[in-house]
Structure formats: C-alpha cells, structure tokens
C-alpha cells in the first residue's frame, strides 16, 4: 500500500477552528450572551451553578493524562453538593471504560454520570425500524456487540464495504485515507445511511491534535453530497440524554456545559438552553487568541475560565 494511502491528513488548531466555521451551516443554531465573564476556574462558579456537565478532553484530561488540578476540583465541587456529569464525544469504548479511565486519573464517576456520543448513536440505531448490517469504523477495543446487532468492523477489504447496508463512524484511531476512499466509493456506488458517533473534528492529545470521526464525516459529505446523521455534541440528542438524567424541575440556567471547543461544547450547550463555560488553557484553543475567535464566530460562552 502506498504512503499516500496510509498517511493521515493533519490539522492544527487554527485549521480545525477554520474547518468548524466552514461547516457552521451544518451545525445547530443557538443564542449567546453579549459578553463572557472571565474567572480563574470552575470553583468560582460553585455558588451559581448546580450541575456541571463536563467535556472530557481538554477539561478533565489531555490524552491519557489528567488536566492539572482537575481531580481536586471535582472533589471540591462534589463537597459543595454540586452534581457532575461527563458528556463526551469520546466513543471508541463503552462508557464503563470511560469511568474506569477517569478513576485511574483520580476522578470517580458513576456509570449514570457519564453520557457519550456512542450512547446517543446506539440509541438512534435501536430506534430504527430497519435492521441493517452496520459496517463500523472502530478499533479492536470498541466492543461492537455492546452497541447492537449487525455491527462489524471495517478494514481494508472492499467486500466488507459492499455487504454493509449502513455505515457508522465510531472511532478514527485505526481509520486511514485508504479506508476513507473505500467508504466514499461504496457510497457513490450505492447510497446507504451513515451514522456518526463522534462529531468532533479533532481532540487534544499530549503530542498535538488527533483527527476524529467528524473530520472524516464532513469530508465524506463534501465528496458524496450525502449528509451523515450526527450523534453527540453539538447535536441535541446527547444533551437530551443528560437532561433526562437530571432531577425534574432542574433550572437550565443553573446547568453549565463546560468545554474547550466553541463549535461543539459552547454551541451545543447554548442550543440546549444551558449556560456555558469555556476552559481555555488545556484544549483546542490553548495556543490561539480565544477572544479573536469568539468575535469572529459569534459563539460567546457565558464564562471563560483559565483552567478547570
């Protein structure tokens, strides 16, 4: 196989933000405050917010390492009686593995405190009246049987793309340009549903940004003209799953979506009617002028904090 077929494209933070803005018409609409209030960390919001809905990458962790002071901050918020929920677009593994990961990083979350875009996609599959054979972009650790029947991992065999009656993009960890080309060719030959279990374009890692399923899904849309079905932030279904787990009568203005990305966390939280908190120092915007990006995009968080 040629280098061109195996080498992944690259996207830096500025490029990722530009790409998010280019696909803005495909994202939900929301209303935003006129200006953001700047604070040091989430502790400053403990009197104003009852429920903190937390993104993972860039808020709780950077790759496989915890964000500095995040374990202590989570413990302090719990001690104040604040409810914590993780809402993540990390979809490669089941939520119980996400809980295990955060436990190892010193942050303990119960299973009912974690909602992932994977969960939202699985729920959408279960609601369908048809029963498709789903070819899934996944890894060996993805436990596809847990998502639902009829799921199998896509690899480099064109026959797998031909036999699938639907496709799902769950993880980009093992995805390659060659596999993307096979998927594009399969859809051009015979249109089929495409579900996306992680709408993120990129995720912050210790050594830079990884490309995520949303990146490949929008490229697929550009090339085939067929719109995938997205599940996870900033789309409504994942936020609705969190809202369904909150006590009846919870005031949405005392719920805050906390994230590092304007076009997923902040946009999606605002569309849900929650308040929003941008964490600046650890995620996508850490090396960029976030004030300039907020002006350019018009996506304004209620609060900006330097760190979790």
Automatic annotation (TrEMBL):
Swiss-Prot/TrEMBL keywords: Hydrolase
Asked if the record carries the keyword Hydrolase, the reply is: yes
List the InterPro entries hit by this protein, alphabetically: HAD-like_sf, HAD-SF_hydro_IIA, HAD_sf
**One cellular-component annotation, GO:** cytoplasm
Q: Name one GO molecular function term.
A: phosphatase activity
* Protein name in UniProt: HAD-superfamily class IIA hydrolase, TIGR01459
């Amino acid at each position: 196989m040629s280098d061109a077929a195996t080498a992944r494209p690259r996207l830096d933070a500025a490029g990722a933000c530009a790409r998010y803005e280019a696909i803005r018409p495909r994202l939900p609409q929301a209303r935003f405050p006129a200006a953001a209030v700047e604070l040091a960390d989430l502790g400053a919001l403990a009197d104003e917010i009852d429920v903190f809905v937390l993104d993972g990458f860039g808020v709780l962790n950077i790759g496989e390492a915890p964000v500095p002071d995040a374990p202590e901050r989570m413990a302090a918020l719990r001690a104040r009686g604040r409810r914590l929920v993780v809402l993540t677009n990390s979809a490669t593994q089941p939520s119980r593995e996400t809980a295990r990961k955060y436990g190892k990083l010193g942050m303990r979350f119960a299973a009912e405190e974690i909602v992932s875009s994977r969960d939202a996609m699985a729920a959408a599959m279960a609601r369908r009246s048809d029963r498709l054979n789903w070819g899934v972009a996944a890894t060996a650790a993805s436990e596809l049987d847990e998502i639902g029947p009829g799921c199998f991992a896509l690899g480099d065999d064109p026959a797998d793309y031909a036999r699938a009656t639907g496709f799902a993009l769950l993880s980009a960890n093992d995805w390659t340009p060659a596999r993307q080309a096979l998927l594009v060719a399969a859809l051009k030959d015979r249109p089929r549903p495409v579900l996306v279990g992680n709408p993120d374009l990129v995720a912050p890692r210790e050594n830079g940004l990884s490309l995520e399923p949303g990146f490949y899904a929008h490229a697929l849309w550009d090339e085939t003209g067929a719109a995938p079905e997205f599940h996870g932030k900033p789309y409504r279904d994942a936020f609705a799953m969190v809202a369904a787990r909150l006590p009846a009568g919870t005031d949405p203005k005392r719920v805050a979506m906390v994230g590092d990305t304007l076009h997923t966390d902040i946009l999606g939280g605002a569309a849900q009617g929650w308040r929003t908190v941008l964490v600046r120092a650890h995620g996508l915007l850490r090396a960029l002028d976030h004030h300039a990006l907020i002006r350019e995009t018009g996506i304004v968080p209620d609060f900006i904090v330097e760190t979790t």
